[in-house]
Design goal:
The strands form 2 sheets. A 9-stranded mixed β-sheet has the order 2-6-7-4-3-8-9-11-10. It has a two-stranded parallel sheet with strand order 1-5. Helix content is 33%, strand content 21%. The chain is built from 9 helices and 11 strands. The longest helix has 15 residues.
């Protein structure tokens, strides 16, 4: 306990609002790269612009997308690592080359996307939608649908409310396993083991605003204009496009629901 207190002085898991500033500092630490070069041609606008850059889709909440043909975006500013020469910071409205092999631009999902209709073949977002209010989520999903080409696919992943509540109600071990996983990430000392806390943390920590199950995802996707029959649950790294489904990260599979919707 003393070692944990020394590493995380003043940390109080029971005060999520007080921990928000620590989360912001943690996010700033990981939003770094070695090289950040502004592209003189500006942001791509339409499908032809995306193709000219070798881009087929957009990954939201990604400083450096793993997709070689993806445009990574995030609200936070990506910066070059301190100590590597003059520090560069990504500014909104500019397209950047990250470490020489990926594209990035800063975008606010609460604002209209700066792209033409039918610009991209896919949109991907891992654990983003829970960080915004429902009206913002619906507006962003409506914009994602607008920029998708006919037949394009949107893939969403987010914490599954049903998984948490089943774990709480049945004591099936999910909450304890989830707690151990989060501890290995090193963001703060080990969480309390209380089941009620472990359910509450998914609502009150990390800047979360709304937690979804499959029906709730269907609801917001339908409000955004996706046809109900084109919305489907998927499994980890399984979906309409293997290259997009492969963006799923392994360390979140215990809590995640995967959903796709076709344009």
């Amino acid at each position: 306990m003393t070692e944990q207190s020394d590493r995380f002085p003043g940390w109080d898991w029971d005060d999520p609002d007080g921990l928000a500033t620590r989360l912001d500092a943690f996010s700033a630490q990981v939003a770094t790269c070695d090289a950040l070069e502004a592209h003189p041609g500006g942001l791509p606008h339409d499908h032809a612009d995306f193709r000219e850059l070798g881009l087929t889709g957009i990954e939201f909440a990604a400083f450096r997308t793993a997709h070689p043909q993806g445009l990574g975006t995030d609200l936070a500013a990506l910066c070059t690592s301190p100590g590597g020469g003059p520090q560069a910071t990504a500014e909104p409205g500019t397209l950047y080359r990250v470490d020489g092999d990926r594209w990035f631009t800063r975008l606010d999902v609460s604002e209209p996307l700066p792209f033409a209709d039918a610009s991209v073949d896919w949109v991907y977002a891992e654990h983003l939608i829970e960080h915004v209010t429902m009206p913002v989520a619906v507006g962003w999903l409506r914009e994602a649908r607008r920029v998708l080409r006919p037949g394009g696919v949107l893939r969403l992943t987010t914490p599954d409310l049903a998984r948490y509540l089943v774990g709480y109600a049945t004591g099936d071990g999910f909450l304890a396993k989830h707690r151990r996983r989060l501890t290995t990430l090193g963001f703060g000392p080990p969480m309390p083991a209380r089941p009620a806390f472990l359910v509450n943390q998914i609502f009150r920590h990390y800047g979360h605003q709304w937690i979804y199950d499959l029906d709730e995802l269907r609801h917001v996707l339908t409000l955004a204009g996706f046809a109900p029959e084109r919305i489907r649950p998927c499994a980890y790294r399984q979906g309409a496009r293997a290259d997009v489904a492969d963006l799923d990260t392994a360390f979140r599979t215990d809590e995640t629901i995967y959903v796709e919707a076709d344009r």
